[in-house]
Amino acid sequence: MSTEERAGAAPIYNIVGDLVALGPLVLDPDGERLHWANDFRTIRGYDPPYPMTAEHFQRIHDLTIAGKRVVFTLYERATARLIGHAGLQGIDPRNRCAELNLFVGAPDARGKGYGTEATRLLLDYAFTGLGLHSACLWVYAFNLAAIRAYEKAGLCEAGRRRESAWMGDRFWDEILMECLARDFTSPVLARVLASDRLQAS
Amino acid sequence: MESPDSQESAPIMNIVGERVMLGPLRREQIPLRLRWANDLTTNRAYDLPRPVTEETFRATYDPVVGETRHIRFTLYERATRRPIGHASLLRVELRDRTAEFDLLIGEADARGRGYGTEATQLVLDYAFTALGLHSIFLRVYAFNLAGIRAYEKAGFREVARRHECFWMGGRFWDMVFMDCLARESARSESPVLGRVFVPDAPRPSREGGAG
């Protein structure tokens, strides 16, 4: 379904990268996200597989909007289509830390570097936008594409919880990856969240 | 030793160790737990230091007790039968056969006696023997040396470290992740529950045995 058919309006963006952009959360305009959520292959890196109803999906959406997390819709810039979501959870202002959360749902949007750039934009938001000091995430050891993307974006492995998740026919480790603000250079928001300049009149 | 604000009836016990015991949470322990929650030294490893009112605490009791994903025990000193803290398995995941361990010793004079080590062993025993879990993890801040030592003695080992993610006393500290697998040595023999969760032995010729 084309962008024009989707309520006619262009998507709203908060943070614009080269390949992807992040905008406010929207509820499944095409009903496509519900398909992703029911694709066991796609969600194997996230939750236990179970059939996700539209009602349950709506409830998760409502909880997300009401909650303390910041969730962006992830768009492919070239087509302006929704390809997933990216967010921060567990935002802790005193300890100045948060956890990253990334989901590329559209199967044909993978393997194009979108995950890497989305991660970079999220880190930018966490450090430049929110002034956080550190950010981390947990990823399953079988999720090789994700691990590669996170590494490219600037996260490093900080250890692993051993055999803590069941997938397929065995237990897998969960890998902790992290990034500190001082090790990250803002790709976008340092130009956006900048001071006005005095202009000679 | 008496604790001024507990008006306990006889404690109910689930798991009895040599020096500590574990039993269900009880409403009458709210004043005691409220006192622990307001001890900033005790809670330096937990939350934002702030005064916790009795009203807030009471309001959270029912939701906490009603949560089935979390399994919480009151921790007792066996010699005196007084409650000294709590020990929990949080977010028990049956598919992944995992959970998070959490321990608090609220009574200052109950520290440094090995109670934390034994409480940890008992909860691991519960996790592995009673629930059949596979991998238990915990989070502890790097400044909490007594905690780390107790967890190591009980069979946990450090597996990951989230750097500079906790503010305490003027600087950031690391969060240390420790885990323990069911097959690992420190607890390969169940200290208590291996004797509790056993099949009945067939008894020849007796009828209507124990209830």
Written overview of the protein:
The complex is a heterodimer of chains A (201) and B (211). By secondary structure, chain A is of the alpha+beta class. Chain A has a domain at 15-133: Gcn5-related N-acetyltransferase (GNAT) (Aminopeptidase). Chain A is 26% helix and 32% strand. Chain A has six helices and eight strands, in the order E-E-H-H-H-E-E-E-H-E-H-E-E-H. Chain A has helices at residues 32-37, 40-43, 54-66, 114-129, 144-153, 189-192, and strands at 15-16, 20-24, 70-76, 81-92, 97-104, 134-140, 156-167, 170-180. Chain A has an eight-stranded mixed sheet with strand order 1-2-3-4-5-6-8-7, with helices on one face. In chain A, a hairpin with a 4-residue loop joins strand 3 and strand 4 (81-92). In chain A, helix 4 crosses helix 5. Chain B has helices at 30-37, 54-66, 115-130, 145-154, and strands at residues 15-16, 20-24, 71-77, 82-93, 98-105, 135-141, 157-168, 171-181. Helix content of chain B is 22%, strand content 30%. Chain B is built from four helices and eight strands. By secondary structure, chain B is α+β, with helices and mostly antiparallel strands. Chain B has a single domain (15-187), classed as 3-Layer(aba) Sandwich (Aminopeptidase), CATH 3.40.630. The interface between A and B is medium-sized, with 21 and 22 residues.
* Tally of DSSP β-strands of chain B: 8
Largest interface between protein chains, with number of residues from each side? A-B, 21 and 22 residues
Summarize the main sheet of chain B.
8 strands, mixed
The gross shape of chain A turns out to be globular
In short:
The complex is a heterodimer of chains A (201) and B (211). Chain A has 201 residues and is of the alpha+beta class.
Notable characteristics:
heterodimer; A: 201 residues; alpha+beta; Aminopeptidase; eight-stranded mixed sheet; disordered N terminus; B: 211 residues; globular
Explain the layout of strands and helices.
The complex is a heterodimer of chains A (201) and B (211).
Chain A: E1 15-16, E2 20-24, H1 32-37, H2 40-43, H3 54-66, E3 70-76, E4 81-92, E5 97-104, H4 114-129, E6 134-140, H5 144-153, E7 156-167, E8 170-180, H6 189-192
Parallel strand pairs in A: 5-6
Antiparallel strand pairs in A: 1-2, 2-3, 3-4, 4-5, 6-8, 7-8
Helix pairs in contact in A: 4-5
Chain B: E1 15-16, E2 20-24, H1 30-37, H2 54-66, E3 71-77, E4 82-93, E5 98-105, H3 115-130, E6 135-141, H4 145-154, E7 157-168, E8 171-181
Parallel strand pairs in B: 5-6
Antiparallel strand pairs in B: 1-2, 2-3, 3-4, 4-5, 6-8, 7-8
